[in-house]
Amino acid sequence: MRALLIGATAAGLALTACGSQPPANVTVRGTVDYQGGGGWSQSSGPCQYGPSPAQVTLEDGSRAVLASAQLWKGTLKDQADCMLPFTFSGVPGGDSQYGVSVPGHGTVWFSRAQLSSRLSLSLNG
Questions:
Q1: pTM of this prediction?
Q2: How wide is the angle at C-alpha 110 spanned by C-alphas 106 and 113, nearest 5°?
């Protein structure tokens, strides 16, 4: 009787785990600190990443692209640093690591837990 009761409890836990909902989709926000990008003459105001936008992507642990955004217009932090915002919406929350990639600058990896805070990356111009 005791073995049967233990078996029933283990089966109940397995059914609960199998019936659980997948992690909810999340919105990921962040900024890229584009350092030395233009040698701006003013110390505050608008700035932009090059003559045209760059595509910033969010990848899962297997490097599949989950979302993309344009990186272009931002705000000067000082005469050398342009803070460029980005937002990824509807990101599946089930992976343990995520990579943010800007062409020509590689990929920076973040944990699932880090996605809930504002991400921050630095690029050299």
A1: 0.72
A2: 165
> Does residue 46 sit within a domain?
yes
Establish if 91 belongs to a structural domain: yes
> In degrees rounded to 5, what are phi and psi of residue 2?
-65, -45
Cα separation, 26 vs 3, whole angstroms: 43
User: The tokens of 18 are what?
Assistant: 């199998």
The CATH number assigned to the domain holding 30 equals: 2.60.40
Q: What is the pLDDT of residues 46-77, one digit of tens each?
A: 887 777 788 899 999 999 999 999 988 888 87
Question: Which one-letter amino acid corresponds to residue 119?
Answer: L
Judging by DSSP bridges, how do beta strands 73-76 and 46-48 pair with one another? Answer: antiparallel
Residue 123 CB-density burial (10 A; 0-12 exposed, 13-18 middle, 19+ buried) = buried
The candidate with the shortest Cα–Cα distance to 70, out of 82, 56, 60, is: 56
